[in-house]
Amino acid sequence: MKTIRRAAAPIIGVLAGAAAAGVFLSGNATATESDSTEERFAISEVIDRHQMYIDLRDADSYANLYAKDGHYRSPFGSADGRSEIKAMFIDLAEKGFTKGKRHMTGPAMIEVNGTTATARSWYWVAETETEHALYATGTYTDKLRKVNGKWEIVQRTQTLDELAPSSQ
């Protein structure tokens, strides 16, 4: 009888652990955590695409990351609405402002609240044509909303780090 109890004890322990894990990990808690992770990943994708579209010189895709009534604020210019944002993008590209640069985004802190979210991320811009050098660093502060299953930037505010080179 002792042999059976000893053999059964680990099995019962595993089953009890699995049952407890099921209680704690099932239902709304897991769904909420999973949904939140999926939403944060989707928002990260928007933030990453923002930088990629600059370097790919894809004005349409860049502008479509923004809500129709989106806003962009930066030391380099501001725009309201998707069409103005696209026009600003094209203007800066035609003036050579983004030529020979690689735009990157670093870590992001993302807070999701239903169909709205805020994000704060660091960025840096590298010079890639005349020399390999750091051109600019700063912060993006974003407000986003989810419309028809898609996250859009409602407002992006770009700031430069205080010690940024004066050539910017």
UniProtKB/TrEMBL annotation:
Protein name: Nuclear transport factor 2 family protein
Domain of life per record: Bacteria
Lineage: Bacteria, Bacillati, Actinomycetota, Actinomycetes, Kitasatosporales
Matches recorded under InterPro entries: NTF2-like_dom_sf, SnoaL-like
Gene3D superfamilies given in the database record: 3.10.450.50
Boundaries of every SnoaL-like domain copy: 36-157
Keywords: Signal
Residues in the signal sequence: 1-31
